């Protein structure tokens, strides 16, 4: 299997898991603090996504295989986190899980976490081959959350 094909498979699994979390029926939870708790995760997740998309610009791709003409971005939010898009997705989807209070959705979220972790490691290997400074960048920044100094 080529890297591109492997990347496409990972992207497909990622989107299927997100769709399951968002579209799976669950009992409505009418508890305001639970709803608000979900919003406290969804809102920053979406903000992180928007900021991440903006900073990547033309280097943005869902496939973990870097674009031929892509540039390594180490500024903005990427100065602190290597995969802020995955961070934003995980936060937003966890907020959706919290709002539904569905244990099945939580297990789907755990599967999404596993897939995104695997995808990030795969992507990091490819980026380290393409960009000579990437290994040093990895030492300075966290994968999904900023490193404490």
Automatic annotation (TrEMBL):
It is a multi-pass membrane protein. Keywords: Membrane, Transmembrane, Transmembrane helix. The chain crosses the membrane at residues 7-26, 32-53, 89-116. GO terms for cellular component: endomembrane system. It comes from freshwater metagenome. This is Unannotated protein. It is found in: Endomembrane system. It holds the Pfam family PEMT.
């Amino acid at each position: 299997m080529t890297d591109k094909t492997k990347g496409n498979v990972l992207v497909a699994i990622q989107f299927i898991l997100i769709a399951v979390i968002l579209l799976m029926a669950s009992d409505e939870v009418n508890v305001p603090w639970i709803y608000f708790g979900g919003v406290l995760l969804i809102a920053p997740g979406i903000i992180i996504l928007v900021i991440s998309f903006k900073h990547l610009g033309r280097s943005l791709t869902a496939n973990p295989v870097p674009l031929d003409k892509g540039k390594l971005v180490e500024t903005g939010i990427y100065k602190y986190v290597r995969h802020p898009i995955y961070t934003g997705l995980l936060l937003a989807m966890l907020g959706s899980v919290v709002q539904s209070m569905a244990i099945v959705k939580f297990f789907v979220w755990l599967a999404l976490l596993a897939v995104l972790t695997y995808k990030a490691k795969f992507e990091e290997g490819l980026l380290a081959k393409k960009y000579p400074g990437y290994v040093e960048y990895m030492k300075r920044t966290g994968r999904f959350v900023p490193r404490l100094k």
